What does this fold into?
Amino acid sequence: MKLTTVLLAAAACSALIGCNGENAKVPAQPSGGGGGGLDAIIQARGFTPDEAEAALKVFVPPGRHDEFLMFTSGGHRGSVMLYGLPSMRLLKEIPVFSPDAWQGWAQGEVESAEMLEKGSFGEGMPTLTWGDLHHPQISLTAGKYDGEWLAVSDKSAGRVGIVSLKDLKTKLIFKTPNTVSDHHAIFTDDSEYLVQSAYFPVPFNEPNGYAPIESYKEKYKSVASFLKFDRKSGTIGLSESFQIELPPYFQDMSILGRGPSAGLLFINSLNTEMSTGGVMEGKPAMEVGASQHEMDYLHVIDWRKAVTVAAEPSKSKAVNGIRVISLATAISEKLIHFIPESKSPHGVDLAPGGEYVVVSGKLDPHVSVYSATKIKNAIAKGVFDGKDAFGVPILKYDDCISAHVETGLGPLHTVFDGDGNAYTSHFLDSTIIKWTLGEPYNAGDKAWKVVDKVAVHYNIGHLQAPGSNTTSPYGRYVVALNKWSVDRFPPLGPLHPQNLQVVDISGPKMKVLSDTPTIGEPHNSQIMPMEMLQAWTTYPEIGWDAVRMKRSAFATEQGKENVKRVGNVVTVNGTVTRSHYTPDIVRVKQGDKVVFNWTSVESARDATHGFGIHGFNVNLSLDPGATERAEITAVKPGVYPYYCTEFCSALHMEMTGWLLVEPK
Ligand code: K7E
Ligand code: CUA
It folds into this structure.
């Protein structure tokens, strides 16, 4: 039998009736891979001993699970990818800002469509069906990942998405007022707040949110948002949230302090030149204008104190539905200080103990390590190196710095293991540099030393390590999120996948173990132990509303299905189970609005059904126990079959129904 025939036969028999494998023999390795032991296989496949070792380190045998789970950004695909580490098997994609037909996300399903609509700009602006998802963040308890929630930020629209890790579905898309973009939203140590920094300043204080770009310095503002997160419901309470107004720089990534830096928020900035571009008007291009200063400003914000200030009615005012502490108040209340940082930095990272704050400017071959203790002392002493154009006091660089480590060209982001080592990505050099932290991890000349370097392929952006930026990193691996893949994959057309590389950091020498092509742009990721994921395998009860995470208002019991007409609205309260829809005939008239309220009465793991209607943008995923709603208008008379889009049973092909639209 030809291989394709064998594979087709195997797929068909296992899907339909289960198969004992008798007919599905795997053909022998083409060049004698079978038999002869490991050495013969290594030889037959042409591996070097190093490659063979790497294969053994990342291989996860059939039926076994990976040790870690990595949540990776899908960039402007608007979703999150889940990979198993070390195998890098793609386990799932979670749609957040963009529709996804497989999971029935905003694909004719009413609740998710409403979520996208509410999460848009409103007032006649379109419902957004895309987002640029950059940074996934796992919720924290006492500074450690707790595996309950995932927050994601949308650079394209200044939104955050909240995903429950109970069912790996999006529960909220929140449009933050006074922002049109962001770059980052991070949880405080007990997930009390999600802290989001705006990226593009806008004149949000002005009538209609408009002011000419010529008034940029006076009227455009940025904000840091403190969004009150309710970890029970996964919602954000706008009335308990607040913002601090910031100068119109581009506020980039941020990190929250802990231990010696507890209560502080650090935000990188760029474009402190306040360049606005205007190449056709004889002005310097954005990237030229924004690179004039040698130093930009690391923002140090006393967010704990800001919570108290925001609670005093006289010290903040409501702007577009959220309390805003003005920059003047932030300065007079000593909520904000700046420290010079190498120009155009990207990431700011916190070493495990909370003392060291690590920043690298892309154009400076050094990593700057600031000391939280020194920063706090400098603020207390009140000795400044002047103020910025808006009156924000600038601390002296030398008063705040612990070390300056020369690492290489284009340093970007730093992650940490649990043994006092830091790993910095270098975009221009295409390397990861391992270097040592100072006290209490390393003393004397063991501290602040570059100890290892590994080449990655190519042009790494972020990198990530299990539990990095928490109180307890797990070490073992670093994953490089490379922007270019060049020759790592076969030619796949002009749009190339990016490349995730697993790097073994368990020994003294780092070693690249594997390449994995990505779907979407993997800006950043977070990695937690797989066992921390305590997701449901079916819903807790039949008739479950996945968005509100409780019993659905329209849950229908088997045997109590009904079709109701009120005016020209026909509501179908039906059930699905293997292998039929009840009802399987729905009769309506041209012009009727038809509401399908389906309840899956399945309780078996994997027994998901679909609901696709011919000719309409509807495809639901009816997971075991779930309710889902779709609404259509029967505009054109005709016969529109509906069918189950998920192979659910031996009689899946028969799981169908008829929508009959009678002419008026
Ligand atoms: Cu470097 Cu948004 Cu952190 Cu991509 S990320 S640019
Ligand atoms: Cu239900 Cu296929």
